[in-house]
Amino acid sequence: MQIREIEEKDNETMEQIIKRSLESFQLNIPGTAYFDPQLGCLAQFYKQQSNAKYWVVVNNQDEVVGGGGITPFGLKTGICELQKLYIKPEAQGMGLSRELMKVALDFAKEHYTCCYLETLKKLKVANLLYIKLGFQQLERPLDGSEHNAMDAWYIKELS
Question: Across the chain, what does the average pLDDT equal?
């Protein structure tokens, strides 16, 4: 497996990975990434943001099996957001989310003081990973949150 920055040719595959994952948890609802307007053009979206990147995981057959990104969070100085971290079911359980997060957080440390993320409590494996990697759970979302269907929020100081 290899992690690299997203390219335009990866947009459709990542959109499908994200949508299928959300559908599998009955989360193809407003207030989730399912309806984000940039979902079909992630490569272009992340390139347009300052201090933002999106990475994909590619298997030995050069197939994209997942991805995740970092963008500035709203208008808050020094805070980024870990976004759209999804792995295909057949590639789960191999530590790919942890590897993607390591790449993303290393990048984030160069530009930000804190990393924020939003998720759902029912995504138990994801929540456990965030805690293992040093994220602290918040009682409510940070002001400026756009995904109102989320019910779990985390922040990590980057040092």
Answer: 93
